[in-house]
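The material for today's practical consists of a large collection of protein records. There is nothing in a record beyond a sequence line and a structure line. As an example, a complete record with its sequence and its structure tokens follows:
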Amino acid sequence: MSPSYIIQFIIMNMKSKSNLSVLDIAAGSGGFVFDLLEIKELSFVFLVAVDNGLYEKVYDEDFEEEFNENVLKYKSETNNSSKVILQYFKQDEYRFLEKTYNKYDIINISNFLHFFDWDTICKYIKLSLSKLQPDGRIFINVARTGHSSKRIKYFFDENDIENLKKIFNIIQWKQEANHFIICISNNSVNIV
């Protein structure tokens, strides 16, 4: 389940609130996608979850199977009346971004970018920006300095937020617990 502060942050920062398309990068079993479907303030037409499956062994789960079970549950709850398209792709996230021709209103990159170095983080954001609709938004959730995980490669601090502002159009950012949540629009400041 996605933390409520992330859901509220998304609602607050979206210009358009209806007929939205969503891409969830490093989606795991797609929990974020199904959390979005419960938001009454937003409506969706197309939701895509992408995950490379590397952490399935860590969590002893089959993410795609769990996603498909949640699709069946959602369809049952809506009596198959929902027209929302739900898709899951088990593949490398960067490769998916390179190959997709779709444009999205929301791209969620949660708990993922902090596993990379700064240059790779900026490449992911740049490529994600190219996949946004004109009024689209990228929502990023990253670990900040002081986070306790030993697997994280890059811990963000406020200087990193300032550096991102020099490169990308950050609409809003917020510190929550041991994370930063960041909203970026597709109007770039200076693409690296």
About this structure: The chain has one domain: 4-185. The longest helix spans residues 63-77. The radius of gyration is 16 Å. Strands lie at 20-25, 44-51, 85-90, 104-110, 132-143, 170-176, 179-185.
